[in-house]
Structure formats: structure tokens, C-alpha cells
Amino acid sequence: MIKHMLAGAAVVALAACSLPEDVSDDVGVTAPGAPDAPEAPDAPIAGDVTYENNSKGNSGGEGGTREFSYSWPGQVAEIPALAAELETRRDAQLAEQKEWWADALADCPEESASCRNLSFELSWQVVADTPRFLSLSHGFYMYTGGAHGNSGRGALIWDREAEASIEPKAMFTSIDELDAAISETACTMLNEERGKRRGGESYGDEGEWPNQCVTMEETVLFVGSSGGDKFDRLGVYYAPYIAGAYAEGDFEFILPVTQAVIDAVKPEYRGAFAVK
């Protein structure tokens, strides 16, 4: 199933990961808060589309359950081409899970129940809705057997003018230019948080895992807007194991858009950004 995970998503194999507690106040991302799976919102936005597909089976052992849930907000449903794209992604993920399910029922040892239980949940949320762009994030949880599930985040931007989706990082001239614009700030924030989680230790900006300064290539990037007109802040997400041990969880930080950030944006997108 992993090969069909959305581009830009952070995936950690065989690990039940804590998702960020809250970035909605700062970037507009509604982040899942449960340690093992994204929480459903108390009340869905009007027009939300939720797709669920559930199965039960028995391979001669204790049986098993397959669960699948995929949803997106009303703003996506209002853009037929974007909705169709997410439907295609959803259907590919579901088809792969069904293949995995058939294999599990056929091959899972009778005494093992975990490999006959599959679960996948993914929920898209709006990060920012500007005149030209709809910026989205998602949180996902996937269980395919074993001691832990997998969880992470991903991002996507719909360009209304081009009528096409792009990854947030694709708005920049290169990963190196993006690193040069925000890496120093991001690394400082990461090292401060790592220090807190590691009992007050301090870290520089260089070194090997788990003390390294993580390149933006290994993160998930979100673009947000405080006023709904221009992108003026960035969210940087580090999945578990990317910046530290699994027990330390994941990391997420909010950075302002600066002139250095705008200079790193491709010319065709610079008008969509503003210094905060």
C-alpha cells in the first residue's frame, strides 16, 4: 500500500506515531491529535465527502477486519477536477488494500490474528484558500499487521489558474534554495525542541542522526495564509525517526515567510507570497 501513499507524505514503517498536537491556530492545518490514528472532527464541515469501506473475513483462524476511510472537505468537492484526482488516489489505495487483504486471508498463519486486520484512514483538511490556490494537508494512519501502525502527514496545492495540483516544494526553485531560506531557523527550532525532549541537552546544527540538521528534502512542507490572500507562513513537519528516535515522536514548526523565502520561490508563484 505504501507506494500509493500521497506524494509528499511522511511514512514511517511499522511505527505507531504521534501526530502534531495542534497547528491549526498558526497555519490553518487541522492536525490529527490521537497518538495512533487521526481523530475525526467533532462536526464535519458542510459538504465534506467521506468514503468508508469495511470488510470482515475468516481464514480459518480468528477472522479479521479490514477498515478503510478517506475524506476531504467541501472546498475540494466544489472543484470537480480536484475531487476526481483525489477519487483516483483513493481508489488506488483501496484497491491495493483489498489485494493485501486477500493475501492476508490466504496466507496469514491460523494462530496469528494481527495480519488479518488492516486499517487505513486519511483525511484532507484545508490549510489556506486564496483566490488562486487551495492549500491542503492530510493526516493518515495505516495498519498492516504487527505491533504498530504507520502515520504521517502530507500536503497538496490546487492551482485554479493552471487547473492542476502541485506539491508545495514544487513552488520553489530548488530544495537547496528552500534550505538556504529557512534551514537555519528550522534547525534552531528543531534543536531547541529536541533538547527539551532529551532532558535539556543542547545541539548544534551539524552531526549525524539523531542530532543532524534535517534537510527540507526529508520534511513535509505546508503553505498557509493568515488573511486568505497571500501565503505568509510555512509549516515544516518531521515524521518520527526523521529527526530523532521513535519515542521522541514527530516535530512540526511554523515559520514566517521572509524575503529570503520569496526569493527562493519560482517567478510564476512569487506573487502568491507575502512577507509576514
Automatic annotation (TrEMBL):
Residues 27-69 are annotated as: Disordered. Keywords: Signal. The keyword Signal applies. Residues 67-151 form the Deacetylase PdaC domain. InterPro entries: PdaC. It comes from the Bacteria. Residues 31-57 have a biased composition (Low complexity). Residues 1-15 form the signal peptide. Coiled coil: none annotated. Pfam families: PdaC (PF13739). The keyword Signal applies. This is DUF4163 domain-containing protein. It comes from Erythrobacter crassostreae.
